[in-house]
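# nightly structure sweep
# worker-07 picked up a monomer target from the shared queue
# config: single-sequence mode, recycle default, output format = structure tokens
# input follows
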Amino acid sequence: MIEMTRPEAVGLSNPRLNRIAAHFDRYVDDGKLPGYLVLIARRGKAAYLHRYGLRDVDAGRPIEDDTIFRIYSMTKPITSVGIMMLYERALLQLDDPASEFIPGFKDLEVFESGDADNYRTVPPERELTVRDLLTHTAGFTYDFLHAHPVDAMYRQREFFDHHGAGMSLQAMMDNLSELPLLFSPGTRWNYSVATDVLGHLIEVISGQSLDRFFAEHILDPLGMVDTGFVVPPHQAHRFAACYERDGDGFRLTDKPQDSIFLKPPKPLSGGGGLVSTAGDYLRFCQMLLNNGELDGARILGRKTVELMTRNHLPDGVDLSGMGYILHGESRESAVGVRLGHRYNLRRGGIRTETRHDGIGFGLGGAVLLDPTAAHILGSPGEFAWGGAASTAFWIDPLEEMTVIFLTQLLPSSSYPIRRELRVLANQAIED
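# output follows
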């Protein structure tokens, strides 16, 4: 149960917060979203909670406070915290070559030309490091991006079988060792399986499986009782269905009654494998906002959190300056940008994510550098990320505020939810 306080007690306007419901309820009423939940906390207190619509449309089951959602890439900050916990024990350094832990990475090459079946490579300028993995500058990619021949190579290897028959993390590393990088590490930014590699590093360094490490060192200490890689049988009735946009509506892609999340996954994906609830994820966010501590459980030191939430892109540039490939959109017509070219989200009518001007990247999540350049209402220093099923969160240290949005609609680029929520949440701040 999420303990609530009055919005006015933490400097928020209740009438202005109600604009959130008025706006997003229309998404459900118009058949664009099955249902959603918004949770806002400020100064350590949850002050706004609104849920609307259904977690399972076919069964007519509503979104509840304790509904379990697939958080997909909102797993990445948790994995990154795990790596930083090992860093605090001096078991690794950020500039360590990843090959110290994954020997097969020692001889990685960089794609130069060709296609998925016939290509040429060149040596990288340097080896990829742990920090490259944390910042998505390692040169890896994702199979769903459809923007480069290396993406197609990933699809051929089938790292993630969505029917539950994927490969182990070790097998995934073995396959990555045989494939080229998109670019020399540190020279570009590309959303990728890098955080899954970090999950493997956690296993190698700690000697524990990723699920056990998470449970023992992060989830149990924080009281995140509903977060994990599997939905246990006694909680299955709380699990939401997952949907995919279909025109102006949506269609079912994963039923909670027979979901692959009801059985142990392969691999244990540190990049996107967890399920969670609003209450659980709020505890994780509040730990970060408290500089690594919550209710007496110290997960990270203050200086470590400060380091994580700074921009780590080379020379302090933003994502636009890194020549990234736009993530969160799998259609080739939308994603087909070349490495090294900036992508304007207004082009082609695609304005579904926050802009990448003025946005940097820390160790495991995006960092807002300049709200003016980003064309978004916010504060410098915000730490944020989202998941493939249109979930999102951000932490604003300046305003002592956390915002969490949970729904289950693929892809995350379907609607401008995150842009709109930024405005609607921040306009409600009164002091």
